[in-house]
Amino acid sequence: MDDHVFAPYKTVQLMNNDKTFMAFYIKPPNKDSTAVVVEKTKRILLKNLKADDFSVSTQEELLKTISGILNILNIGLAGIAAISLLVGGIGITNIMYVTVTERTKEIGIRRAIGATQKDILFQFLVQSVMLTTLGGIIALLFAFVTATILYALFPVTITQIGVCLGFFVSFFIGVIFGVFPALKAAKLSPVEAIRYE
């Protein structure tokens, strides 16, 4: 608040020919007397003004308003993130289906020499998780760079919980969206897979 000056109102009245004020900041003697001070302030202002001409608000009310706005923003950002994760997950599924198709012959050979369905399932799940984890690492690096740039404007920090949550979500997306292609690969018949062109 570099363009604000706090001064006693009587001093300001001497300097202000219009004798008008946009706002008053009143400090109650203690936290418990806030409600009493608000009511007393309203009574004093109502002597010269109509109820619609002014408003009296406390810091708690302002904080509630700001918190409400931030909650709406957080819900909106969470919705955007959920849509992004869904689109990314569908992309991972498509990539994994293509990978399974391209490696069908390899799957058949592996099954023919003793690999179980669990081995094939695990192989493709690990590949899916590696893809999403790599994407998570790139996203975190981008977040660190963005936070560093924005820190000049206002303090932005990336917490350890945020980093851990990012990795967990990446892992979870890899498992959820990679399981269907991995199951398809695991259920392939060895004979048909070897014959696949």
Q: Can you give a write-up of this model?
A:
With 197 residues, the protein is mainly alpha-helical. It has two domains: 9-53, no CATH class; 71-195, no CATH class. The protein has helices spanning 9-15, 34-46, 59-102, 104-112, 117-150, 160-186, 190-195. Helix 3 (59-102) packs antiparallel against helix 5 (117-150) and helix 5 packs antiparallel against helix 6. The longest helix is centred in the middle third of the chain and has 44 residues, at 59-102. The protein is rod-shaped, with a radius of gyration of 31 Å. It starts with 8 loop residues before the first helix and ends with a helix.
Give the uncertain stretches in residue-range form. none
Q: Give the helix tally.
A: 7
Radius of gyration: 31 Å
Biggest pleated sheet: none
Shape: rod-shaped
Protein topology:
Elements: H1 9-15, H2 34-46, H3 59-102, H4 104-112, H5 117-150, H6 160-186, H7 190-195
Helix pairs in contact: 3-5, 3-6, 5-6
Task: Provide a brief overview of the structure.
By secondary structure, the protein is mainly α. It contains 7 helices and no strands.
Which key phrases capture this entry?
197 residues; mainly alpha; 2 domains; 7 helices; 71% helix
